[in-house]
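Sample intake sheet
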Amino acid sequence: MLALKDVHAFYGKSHVLHGVSFEVGAGEIVSLLGRNGSGRSTTVKAIMGLVDGAGSVRWKGREILGKKAFEVAHAGIGYVPENRDIFPTLTVQQNLLLGQKRGAKNPRWAFDDMYKLFPRLKERQHTEAGVLSGGEQQMLTLCRTLMGDPELIMIDEPTEGLAPKIVEQVAEYLRELKRRGISVLLVEQKLTIALQVADRCLVMGHGQIVFEGTPAELRGNAYVRKEWLEV
């Protein structure tokens, strides 16, 4: 569904991505791993049109590199940023409403689905989002993106700063996406969740893909883990 070929990205004159190429198939979970500064978040932002890029990003056969972020979103790609962008003065339910795509026919997700995935959100549905805990805000951000009914969802560091119990809820959320046929590009630094849920793992270093393989292959590759993942 998603295919990157020789993608380069820039922040001003700073050249950050150096020829990134990979694919994400229908209903597939792909983990994009690497240390901080390796280019993972920039890759996702290049797909979304949030940084200047060159090369090719094709979505279901159509070139989207250079499109505006709202155009990419309307094409069926959802993006959950690392900084948990929520509307703090709006309630949980109002935040979810803002995620709905106008005119969508037969959407796969409704409020009941969100509240089933994360019951805590149902308890807090009339609470202003700004007073939620970090874990609750992460749940809300994930669910608000799903309300837009994306076919691919890109999630940047969803478990950062979360308690182990919430991390497991996020892992189950990712499995549910797969069960519903939604593709996932998961940007992560932690090997644990990536190896649990991914069909394939990509490892980045210095703005390039330095490894691609199954979770089992990554688990068995001590060199890649030591050189590019372990702090």
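Comment: The longest strand covers residues 14-24. The chain has one domain: 2-229.
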